[in-house]
Amino acid sequence: MYDFILxxxxxxxxxxxxxxxREEIKSDFLRSMDKDEITYPREFVxxxxxxxxxxxxxxxxxxGRDMSWVAEVAATEEIGCLGMALGCAFVMPSIVGEALNxxxxxxxxxxYLKPYLAGKLVAAEAxxxxxxxxxxxxATTRAVRLLIRRSIASCTRAGASSAMRDTTTRRSHPTAxxxxxxxx
Length: 184
Known about the structure:
Layout: H1 8-24, H2 27-34, H3 42-50, H4 69-79, H5 84-103, H6 106-117, E1 141-143, H7 164-168, E2 180-182
Antiparallel strand pairs: 1-2
Helix pairs in contact: 1-4, 5-6
């Protein structure tokens, strides 16, 4: 990332992420990931949380740093040199946490977002629908009342998730609030 784009605080964060990569991640860990000896990099996530490198954009109240998207991208660029799996684990708070941060209640943020950013919970994203692959904009999800009928083609490594089961197995009631569901 071009330095002239970054504020001094964002440059400092980028350097912090660079130091994290150099000092915290050993080659043996990366080799174990490559050999599929590690199915989910929980140790990596916990180390990120210990250094407050999860949820960089999120409010401090929930464990973030209340920084900009530019700051997060600068840190992602440094973490990304570790490979796709660890890069994805790093950006997952931006994907999963975003909905909680913007649409969640204070109670949900306290219960899920705060421990998630602290590295105590793991989340997964169930996006794939039959015939849709990973095409986010091709999803046929729509909000309905009454009964959730869904058809999910697959969900890789959902077993590692702390929150997945809770968010995908609910039934609605006629007076329940609207929520997205996959329907045929």
